[in-house]
From TrEMBL:
Short name of any one Pfam family annotated for the protein: Ribosomal_L28
Gene3D superfamilies tied to this protein: Ribosomal protein L28/L24
Keyword Ribonucleoprotein among UniProt keywords: yes
GO molecular function, one term: structural constituent of ribosome
Organism: Acetivibrio mesophilus
Protein's UniProt name: Large ribosomal subunit protein bL28
Residue ranges that the Swiss-Prot or TrEMBL entry lists as coiled coil: none
Keyword terms: Ribonucleoprotein, Ribosomal protein
Cellular component GO terms, alphabetical: ribonucleoprotein complex; ribosome
Gene Ontology annotations of biological process type: translation
Family membership: Belongs to the bacterial ribosomal protein bL28 family.
Length: 62
């Protein structure tokens, strides 16, 4: 599932609009990575978006 375990960012829905102004449904998915993190001193695997990784909201397990 495309959802971040830290910030709960998930899919967004909207409309794709063509040059002739026809509208069809489309979706935007967040950039999710499955990584090992340290949570309360224990390593675990989590789905984290790259924005949370870049802003150091989690500690990566090596």
């Amino acid at each position: 599932m495309a959802k971040c375990d830290i910030c709960s960012k998930d899919m967004l829905f909207g409309l794709k609009v063509s040059h002739s102004n026809r509208k069809t449904n489309r979706s935007w998915k967040p950039n999710i990575r499955k990584i090992r993190i340290i949570d309360n001193g224990t390593p675990k695997t989590a789905n984290i978006c790259t924005r949370c990784l870049r802003s150091n909201k989690v500690t990566r397990a090596i």
